[in-house]
Amino acid sequence: MNSRHGSSPLFAAAGALALLAAALLPAACGRPEAPPSDGAAKVLKIAVIPKGTTHEFWKSIHAGALQAAKELGVEIIWKGPQKEDDRAQQITVVEDVISRGVDGIVLAPLDDRALVRPVQDAMRDKIPVVIVDSGLQGKDYISFIATDNYQGGVLAARRMGGLLTGRARILVIRYQAGSASTTERERGFLETIEREFPGLTLLAKDQYAGPTTETAYQTAENLLSRFHDADGLFCPNESSTFGALRAVQESGLAGRIRFVGFDSSPKLVQALADGHLDGLVLQNPVKMGYLGVRTMVQYLRGETISQLIDTGVALATKDNMSTDEIRMLLTPDLSILER
């Protein structure tokens, strides 16, 4: 899902829903036919399919989905690929839940092209799909619930620009091709640096971290070896930020190179407190998971839903990390996963 300079791609991703004000207006997306009454309340089954299952971000999505399921009296099926570059496995998961006849699917597509056909298949079988976190090409879904990822990149760039005055050189480590959410963060960062901070030079902007912290570590290690005098570093998601953090710490650059990352985990929070990270752009994955399930249930029950929902974005720094708002985003309550 693409947008042009000066417009937010989260809203462009919905095609005709180009403007936030318009996008957030309730859309009449009620289910065409109410399910027949058989005298007993049917327990809805909602499949929630993340990009992966290991990172803290997806655990937070899971916690939010479980909270909504508990409040609404529905059942969720949580299943996703082990690795966030396994397109084939995520497609298989989607196909499996379609064959099981779930009532709805909440999907975070790990590739904005590869998952188009499986989502079309689900919609064709009258299984509605809500897209969360990362965009999907086309409009074959009932709602898109996500961070304004471009704006997240803008926040990161402005933090970096505020830290590096005058002339400085920075590195950008991308995540992986096909991931719409991180692509928009990277674009927001790069365009803002070029537009607002002409004194900052991009030493590298086409290197990819890959799907794991280990691949991110290797990429960062290689870049820091080549550009040991770089002044700044930006990474667009949890795994790339953590992998690069290890490389920065092991190279002795922690606290010397200005480092802005994305998302949160206990080790990233500690690095922020220690001054090894200068900023973390934060989403609200608990809210995203919660709204994904709630929106699906509303649709299935014939209620009015919004076709586009922005779940918000914030910047955590060492100075504001102890405030109530930022602390909640940095360390969300995941206790529901242990029940």
Summing up helix and strand content along with how strands pair, one would put the structural category as alpha/beta
Order of helices and strands: HHEEHEHEHEEHEHEHEHEHEHEEEH
Give me the side-by-side strand order of the main sheet. 3-2-4-5-6-13
What is the mean pLDDT? Answer: 90
Strand content: 15-25%
Structure described in brief:
The chain has 339 residues and is α/β, with parallel strands linked by helices.
Describe it for me?
- The protein is an alpha/beta fold.
- It is 41% helix and 17% strand.
- The two termini are 38 Å apart.
Write the layout of secondary structure elements.
Blueprint: H1 9-12, H2 20-23, E1 26-27, E2 45-49, H3 56-72, E3 75-78, H4 87-99, E4 104-107, H5 116-124, E5 129-132, E6 143-146, H6 149-163, E7 168-174, H7 180-196, E8 200-208, H8 213-226, E9 232-234, H9 238-250, E10 258-262, H10 266-274, E11 279-282, H11 285-300, E12 305-306, E13 308-310, E14 314-316, H12 324-330
Parallel strand pairs: 2-3, 2-4, 4-5, 5-6, 6-13, 7-8, 7-9, 9-10, 10-11
Antiparallel strand pairs: 1-12, 11-14
Helix pairs in contact: 3-11, 4-5, 6-7, 8-9
Structural key phrases:
41% helix, 339 residues, 17% strand, alpha/beta, elongated
